[in-house]
Amino acid sequence: MRVLILGGVAAGTKVAAKLLRENRDHQVTILTKGKDISYAGCGLPYYVGDVIHDRGQLIVNTPEQYAKLTGASVLTETEAVAVKPEAHVVEARDLKTGEVKEYAYDKLVISTGASPFVPDIPGLDLENIFVMRTPDDAIALRAAIEAGTIKRAVVAGGGFIGLEVAENLAAQGIKVTVIDMAPHVLPNFLDSEMAEYIENRMAEAGIMALTETALEGVTGEGRVEKVQTSRRALKADALILAIGIRPNTAFLEGSGIEMVKGTIVTDQYMRTNAADIYAAGDCAMVTNRQTGKPAWSPMGSTANISGRVLAKNLAGEEIAYPGVLGTGVVKLPGGLNAGRTGLTEAAAKAAGYDTVSVLSIVEDKAHYYPGASTFIIKMTASKTDRKLLGVQVLGSGAVDKITDIAVTAISLGAAVDQLSSLDFAYAPPFSTAIHPFAHTVNILMNKMDGDMDSVSPAEYEAGDGADYEIIDCMPVPGLKGKRSLDVTTINGPVEGLGKDDPLLLVCVKGKRAYLTQNRLKYYGYTNTKVLEGGATFNEIEDEDE
Length: 545
Prior knowledge:
The chain is an alpha/beta fold. Helix content is 24%, strand content 27%. It contains 13 helices and 34 strands. The strands form nine sheets. A five-stranded parallel beta sheet has the order 5-2-1-9-22. The longest helix has 15 residues, at 300-314. It starts with a strand and ends in an 8-residue tail after the last helix.
């Protein structure tokens, strides 16, 4: 069987390698526009920051190495320009000679990926304007840094790549400003209060995030000197465009292959509407495994997983790709990491779920162990069937651990009640005796069962609890002008507090406030609320402000 694959980065090379492991009798040819194949696109920001020192470390395989390893034929600098499904032919141009040739196939895989979106604004012909998609892009930016031509930079785009580039530029001593048109960084990845926390941490690290800010142009004499935004002009020596990506599918116009906003529509077996044509990777649409709705997931993980499924289907099996959960992890400026899987609270409500969420601050390992820190975890579940819907986590440690546990739980349809007593691994260097994931599940269950009455950070910011008296529940009072209360001294009614007084209980993280609420409830206090996340996550105004 002749299998022709268009695109040779993640999905395309995965399909070819797996297919030829299944059956080496197949004749597999990869056509790719670039000079490189199988490169680590997600590692590019870390090459910019000299975390990855050698360009060669970004190249998983050269075309020659890959061909020897797998048995596939690789033609680089060869760009597909048309697909003719009825004739089972692809037209492709040799970018070195300009010659257009036809390539016949029995099965075709389209994995042409995506390219950075470059807006139509003045000044993009100036020196020191960069994108971040290929090894050559990262090499060019790092060379400019090492040449000493960049002291100030503007990163347009507050998504994964933009923030990773910002972190690595700042680590090189460059003053960085991030701009994005969305209300917050990491739009659609986290709920707004989690993203706002990240923005505050970025500011503490010296990286300003200007949200709801449009990029309007660039000015300078031959080289970038100012970046014009909808707010003001920003002094800069460089502009890095990380606004987003667009699928590389323009060549499919007129082919009859179904697309939505330039993204190829596939079924659960990665088939398109055209006979014998499949698609995977950043150019293809998949589904959300929770909602069943179409989802675009331009992630290296999605490309590899769906590519493997596609290869097995080409080899004669019939395996459905169940879809994505929106899973992601990212290393952020300010020593913070973020992870998420499943639906955010906002997305779950938009999808029609009746939700309940909780925000916890829990230790990531034994508190006495060197390097111990905390996780900030937001966990969302369905009120009706108590199934876990999504998890968001921030912290300086292994946020992927929390994220991946949630991936497993959501994929298997677990209810929160099934998760609280799982036999998680424990030793002081790795975790806590009650795992931080289970700890958060327990807090969520306490809220769902009415054992804890609380106000979330989002609700508090929106004004919920404004009519409540704030009670400082910290062991050492830390809120100026607030009444303090030590749970260890509560052994009956508290002088000066009425049993029905509205009381908002605040401690550093939330735990001691919950213990205080539990004690007060026992002694007949009926109107207390715990502020989730405590003073660590929320801004509590002093009495005299």
